[in-house]
Amino acid sequence: MCGWAARALHPGRRPCFIAVEDETPLAETIDPAGVRVVLEGHVWAQKIVRDHPEVGAHRADALRAVSAPDHVAQDPSSADRRRFYLRGAGPSRWLLVVVSYEQTPARIISVFANRKDPKTWSA
Questions:
Q1: How far is the C-alpha of 117 from the C-alpha of 27, rounded, in Å?
Q2: Model pLDDT for residues 38-56, shown as the tens digit of each residue
Q3: Which domain holds residue 110?
Q4: pLDDT at 4 over 50
Q5: Does the chain have fewer CB atoms within 10 Å around its N or its C terminus?
């Protein structure tokens, strides 16, 4: 892992982000299991909105996706990450929010619009 305070730039790769412990979150919510999940300002502005500007106006929807999701799935890249889906929110059919539980408090690390149903979704 690389830290925000010592933002590591790797040749050919984007910088990675981890929160500084004393940073005040931009927003927070509670997931369905009762776990506190935070959204940090630098992650929202310098990663999520930079990479997915179409979700910039949907921060409240991203928090709602975590607190009251229509679907939750394991993230295929890490056992310590979950994908929270909210239908009919954001700029597409689904709003997908990735939460990392690799640290405490858990953190929103990505938000993006998704047209396709989740693979494990059944209506």
A1: 27
A2: 999 999 999 999 999 999 9
A3: 27-114
A4: no
A5: C
